[in-house]
Amino acid sequence: MAENEPKQDPKSPQDVRLASLDERLRQAQAEEAKRTGTAMRVQPTGQAQGMRILSVLFGYPFGSAAIGFTIDWWAGTKWVWVAMLVLGIGAAGREVWKISQQTPE
User: Fold this and answer.
1) Could you give the 3-state DSSP secondary structure of residue 16?
2) How far apart are CA 18 and CA 11, in angstroms?
């Protein structure tokens, strides 16, 4: 049914009801952001970025190695934890790169 409906012509004037709905939606989103406290996005400080990098450098490899060790224990193999460790180190490097591209306050 939706395939048979005519598309809106970009040259035609915008429907007043849609404009009103857009405005009310924008206002409701702003009020919700204000109510939940997500209205202001603050850039992390240098110390916060450093702590995040430290936690990523330890957490990703150790977490992925633990998952690999569990898979090894369950499957009876002996090499999955090494592959998961390498994968964790690669993921940590990528995440550190993304964090380093952000500018601190």
Assistant:
1) helix
2) 16
Q: Give 44-78 pLDDT, tens digit per residue.
A: 678 888 899 999 999 999 999 999 999 999 999 99
The answer to whether 35 and 27 are in contact (CB under 8 A) is: no
Angle at 64 between CA 52 and CA 51, to 5 degrees: 10
d(CA 105, CA 51): 15
Chain CA centroid to CA 68, Å: 24
Residues 6+ apart with CB under 8 A from 43: 102, 103, 104, 105
